[in-house]
């Protein structure tokens, strides 16, 4: 009889734990970002930045990590586009190799394999910035290899919050 109750309790616990999606208990390694529609050869599996929300006039420390299946060439660019209420609010195009790879002690070309880069990025303030509010931008993060045409290596989209003091 005791074995029956132990088995019943065990089965109840298994049923209970299976009823919860496993993602409920996992940390979001992409900080709310998702891969864009389409197929991209290089995958970013971790995005983390602080402070969150970003604050104009302060540095934003960004961590990205993932897996390259295609070599990142010298001259690769990172394009960051922010939209607010459906309209383009900003575009930043930077040399991915100089701003991300070299800052971490590596050099382009970056061969296929695992990568992790931590980069401080200044968030510039502007006299026309709003005051005492937080704005959530629709954010697009794309890395391209140079060439004609450029090759899009990866693309992430999501929300990026900026807290204006």
Automatic annotation (TrEMBL):
InterPro entries: Ig_E-set (IPR014756), ML_dom (IPR003172). It comes from the Eukaryota. SMART domains: ML. Keywords: Signal. It comes from Gigaspora rosea. Residues 33-160 form the MD-2-related lipid-recognition domain. This is Phosphatidylglycerol/phosphatidylinositol transfer protein. Residues 1-19 form the signal peptide. It holds the Pfam family E1_DerP2_DerF2.
